[in-house]
Amino acid sequence: MAIVTIGNKKIGDGKPCHIIAEIGINHNGDIDIAKKLIDLAKLSGCDAVKFQKRTIDVVYPAEELAKPRESPFGETNGDLKYGLEFGQEEYEAIDKYCKGKNMPWFASCWDEGSVDFIAQFDVPCYKIASASMTDDDLLRYTKAKGKPIIMSTGMSTLEQIDHAVELIGKENLIILHATSTYPALYDELNLLVIPSLKKRYGVPIGYSGHETGIASSSAAVALGACVVERHITLDRAMWGSDQAASLGPSGIIKMVNEIRLVETSLGDGVKKVIERELPIIKKLRRKG
After folding, report:
1. How far apart, in Å, are the Cα atoms of 221 and each of 162, 183, 246, 253?
2. Where are the domains of the chain?
3. Per CATH, the architecture of 4-284 is what?
4. Cys-Cys with 182: which of 212, 245, 259, 270 at CB 3.0–4.6 Å?
5. Farthest-apart Cα atoms in the chain, separation
């Protein structure tokens, strides 16, 4: 199984699970909320934070932006999208703040202009969102930056994943199993896809979850996920489309702790008598 190096972290079988706190758009357009979410990721023991970057008038057609949609930013879908989108000033603040916290950050870029925008910050990797996995031009453009790629596979067939992998190659690629419902139901998660993807592609496989609980993330690690990505929020009752599919402070802290316990529990797979069992053998066994 291949090992992918992102920054100073090696990711793959036998390495600690790389836990990504997906801030996404849960900052609600407020840089102070973004900083508090970075603090939460750091406090909980996450390894990186991730944002989302879009060139709004490229990603969304004019008719979509003109649709009525009430939000704190206005009366149209465009008001909402522009209101949630961070620009140069905000990302400079994010980059500075993350460096001060020693917290790596990167973003899922939904268009080529956004890839170039994020590239100025020399991020350690790029994310391909599930919604972008079938955008061949974006995949090629992102690959050309020469950084590792983490690719989510929600709402995708194996044939579509095959095509994407063939296009960008397996070198420096991490694939995340995902279900793109928000929040996802437990009977939709299909975690047994994780070992299937490992066998099929021979690259590090992870899990991007959108469910409300944490048991499935621990189970994903037990099934071989070497990356876990979960949305985080300051409060799941906050305004915003992704808040309900996110983990609050207690949830992300507990999830990280449980994943580390699962990793410790997995061991090396070799069945043997451990030293602390020896006095128990003397005490309980009558024969043998």
Report:
1. 23, 20, 19, 16
2. 4-284
3. Alpha-Beta Barrel (3.20)
4. 245
5. 79
